[in-house]
Amino acid sequence: MAQVTIRINGYAYTVGCEDGQEEHLAKMAAEIEQRIASIKAIGGQSGEARLLMLAALLLADELYDLKSHETGVAAQTPQHEGGKTSGERRARLRRVAARAEEIASDLLDI
């Protein structure tokens, strides 16, 4: 088993993976780092855990869109991020962040 040190938001994490998967793991870390940079660009800095949570939500949202597209539901949902303008991505990020805020607030009230 290989060990890879990845950097996300300035922090180093050592992660185990199958031999030969080191480059793939580094690319996945870069995807997460890209989402965090997008969140920071719209002023979404408020702690490491929060940034990671928002990045995870963005990735989950993109995965949902891809799965929907594959199952023929794409006509009812927006296209994958690659076809969107920067403004559309920012607006979507704001909506996802607002929803995450609602969920977090609901959980705190429990």
Structure in words:
There is one protein chain. This protein is α+β, with helices and mostly antiparallel strands and 110 residues long. The chain has one domain (2-109). The chain has three helices and two strands, in the order ββααα. A two-stranded antiparallel ribbon has the order 1-2. A hairpin with a 2-residue loop joins β1 and β2 (11-17). α1 (22-41) crosses α2 and α2 (48-70) crosses α3. The model has no long low-confidence stretch (mean pLDDT 80).
Beta percentage is 5-15%
Q: What kind of oligomer do you see?
A: single chain
Instruction: Calculate the mean pLDDT score and round it.
Output: 80
Main sheet summary: 2 strands, antiparallel
Spatial order of strands in the largest sheet: 1-2
Shape: globular
Describe the secondary-structure layout.
Elements: E1 2-8, E2 11-17, H1 22-41, H2 48-70, H3 86-109
Antiparallel strand pairs: 1-2
Helix pairs in contact: 1-2, 2-3
Short descriptors:
single chain, alpha+beta, 13% strand, globular
Condensed summary:
The chain has three helices and two strands. The protein is an alpha+beta fold and 110 residues long.
